[in-house]
Amino acid sequence: MAELGSYSLRIALLLAVTGLCTAVYAGRRGNANWQRVADRAVWATFAFVSVAMGALFTAFATHDFGIAYVASHSARSMDLSYRLAALWGGQDGSLLLWLWILLAYATACVLVNRHRNRKLMPWVVAVLLANAIFFLALLLGVTDPFEKLPPDHVMSDGRGLNPLLQHPVMLIHPLMLYTGLVGFVIPYAFAFATLVTGELGTQWFRTTRRSTLFAWTFLSIGVVLGGRWAYEVLGWGGYWAWDPVENASFMPWLTATAYLHSVMIQEKRNMLKTWNLLLIGLTYSLCLFGTFLTRSGIVQSVHAFAQTPIFTGLFLGYVLVTMTFFGAALWFRRKGLRSPNQLESMLSREASFLLNNWVFVAILMVIFWGTLFPVFSEALSGQRIAVGPKFFNTMAGPLALLLLLLTGVGPLIAWRRANAASLRRQFLWPIVACAAMAGLLLLTSAQRDLYGLAAWSLGSFALTAILQDFSRAIRARMRGRKENPFRAIVTLLVRNQQRYGGYVVHIGAILILMGTAGSVLNVERLQNIQPGAEIEMGEYRLLYLNAEAIPAQHYGGAVARLALYRGDEGLAVMQPEKRMYWLEEQPASIPSVYSTLREDVYVILTAIESDGSATVKVYRNPLVNWIWIGAVVFVLGCIIVMWPHPERRTRREAQ
Amino acid sequence: MSKGFQIAAGATAIALLLGWYGWSQLEDGSTFSYYQSLEEFLLSSEIGEHARVHGYVAEGSIQRDVPGRQVLFVVQESPPHAGGDGGARLDVIFTSLETPDLFKGGAEVVVEGRQLGGAGNRRFEADKVFAKCPSKFEGSQSDPTRSAALD
Fold first, then answer.
1. Looking at the partner chain, which of A300, A366, A585 has a beta carbon nearest the beta carbon of B144?
2. A313 at B interface, C-beta within 8 A
């Protein structure tokens, strides 16, 4: 298998280099035949890299421990699904996966555009293949996943996979995240081709709209799944810690989200051309930079892979080249990108979108400086100083509130210039809802946390604004076309999928933000109890029943049983585990969670003490479920926006 | 004033405000320094001083004092499996029972807290203990905080 994989990668490299040369030649000469050759080179490269992926999967499935990567990331005792997922459990395999996804996108792009965008395509293919060549060279030269162990080092079993990664979420989380991160190469390539050819129209973003949304959706899913995994596996009671690896995936999400908004201004008003190109260049660069950041170990992270200086240097070079080329092309075309239109009024939807962009960029800056603070402080003062989650929360929190406000204002305010009468009509109910929520919270809750109060009030404001827009449109259809309400909703979503699908995405985002604000009311308690004793937490009681050994498998350990009561009503038996993975010699605490729409009770077994008592940590985390619910709504909205629409397609083809 | 100027002025004002706010947050104790090695700490520390110290848990030194809700252990300079006497040692009192998963004899740890008692009777009262992954996994083969960024 090692030979098959290794030679496939070598052939793929040859094909990619050939494809790059022909694509550049075709682009310069405008030669369609050479371009067809380049297109086919993309398919062929993809085919050979797929063979390499297949070879590595097969090696994992068949316990081929002669391959160093397989031996150090799997073991016979692991389920087949985890052995296959071990392919992205380490650096070498992750890079192969990255390359494969990149080429899958490239192939799809070439197929979709075989009759379209013929002027841009040579440069698009050139950019895609140039990226692929970098990864191919890296895989063949520095991080070879097919490297064989010397014969006298081959063992009958592998060393296993980090037990923290042996979790169902880990089967798909990296796939989602990479599909998101890598996907931004498509808009990047089209933006680059636009700048090279000087075809500065709207074609590049119209063509890449769906693929950008696709990548963005998967990046969002990846980020949320990462949080879910942390919540269920890491056992510290939270889902987001502002760890560099989390920030690395969040930064490109911020610029991409800003782009998705500002590109609408370009579409409607032909403004912000340079800004949009800049955002897309920045997004792709941040995707690469994030990978560099977490893989290079320049900032400490729980997820950092082992580093080799040569890898670090090469990857940093790659990120810089990606940025420099794009920046230079943008500078070269700066005159052609001037906008004929000006912002007319600060009271317009454009202005609110612009403000939204600033807020996204401000959050990006906060996270960027915060994440890299150890590096900067070392350069300035010689001492590495890190900033903790408190810094990020206090900095990004108010900005998130501003976003929440803008989410509500967006649908209420007209394009170009809003007038006073329309503003009054639009803002009345959302403001009433906001005030009602604030009043309700102040009257009923003893908790007076400013952030929570603001988040839930502004959340109600934004939700009402969106629902008001929906209901007006639905009622208009019911009156005008005599449709029943259900039919009216469906037609709305079908006819204007971008607008109303976008609102569904917003509802999801609002729910997520309102859910995360629940963390201001988190309560935690560490207690040592004997069997038969209880822990009290608000209206909950946890009765410690007993503890016993986990039936031996590839891990052992203890499970504690605690009965959860509210008043006298028995709710659940919670069974937090303390595991020991034998082969990997690594312990893990698996929390037990009782989850309702209102709050989660989250229990961790810290230790079974020698006197038979248990040390237990209990968290009460309000509203966590709304984060996952919000995420589902969010993705649903994304699907509505992206859903291929037969009527629209025929109309486009007719044009 | 042109629109462009207004926008630029607004953006600058917001950026300055944010920068100032961020700076004030930094001084507010939300930052932390990276740690010192045990030997560095023993050379420089003073009683009561807040510190983060890196070392290894001496084998067999962990005592869980459940009634007292604390864990006592000894931190030494070099890993026990490296042989030798393990270098400098420091008694640590961890004021919680909430030890991390990876905490055990021989584990690489960072303890955060303050020093009690002077030379001769030096102890360390830790309010936080961080344990690092076993070095078998890629996650921690080397210490990222000490390797220079891009050498």
1. A300
2. yes
Residue in chain B lying closest to A297 (CA)? B144
User: Is the Cβ–Cβ distance between A570 and A553 less than 8 Å?
Assistant: no
What mean pLDDT do residues B10-15 have? 78
Distance CA(A291)–CA(A248), nearest Å, equals: 7
Mutate to test the interface with B, among A245, A310, A358 (most CBs of B within 10 A): A358
What pLDDT, on the 0 to 100 scale, is given for residue A628?
97
Q: How far apart are CA A566 and CA A262, in angstroms?
A: 49
Selecting from B18, B22, B99 the residue whose C-beta is nearest the C-beta of A606 gives: B99
- Average pLDDT value for residue range A207-227: 93
Looking at the structure, give the CATH architecture of the domain made up of residues A1-161.
Up-down Bundle (1.20)
CB nearest A342 (choices: B3, B18, B104): B3
Contact A199, A119 (CB under 8 A): yes
The complex's ipTM? 0.72
pLDDT for A182 beyond 90: yes
| Domain locations in chain B as residue ranges | 1-31, 36-137
Q: Which of A297, A587, A611 sits opposite B147 (nearest CB)?
A: A297
Which tokens belong to B42?
């023993």
How many CB atoms neighbour CB A623 within 10 A? Answer: 23
pLDDT band at A300 (very low <50, low <70, confident <90, very high): low
Which chain B residues are Cβ-neighbours of A309 within 8 angstroms?
150-151
When comparing pLDDT for A229 and A294, which is higher? Answer: A229
Contact state of B21 with A607 under an 8 Å Cβ cutoff: no
Domain B36-137 has CATH 2.40.50.140: yes
CB–CB contact A365 B18 (8 Å): yes
- Contact assignment for B150 to A159 by CB distance below 8 Å: no
Chain A, nearest residue to B133 by Cα = A586
A315 min Cα distance to partner chain B (Å): 11
pLDDT digits (tens, 9 = 90+) for A625-645: 999 999 999 999 999 999 887
The string of DSSP codes covering A310-361 is: HHHHHHHHHHHHHHHHHHHHHHHTTGGG--S-----SSSHHHHHHHHHHHHH
DSSP β-bridge partners for residue B75: B57, B90
Domain boundaries, chain A: 1-161, 389-520+627-654, 523-623
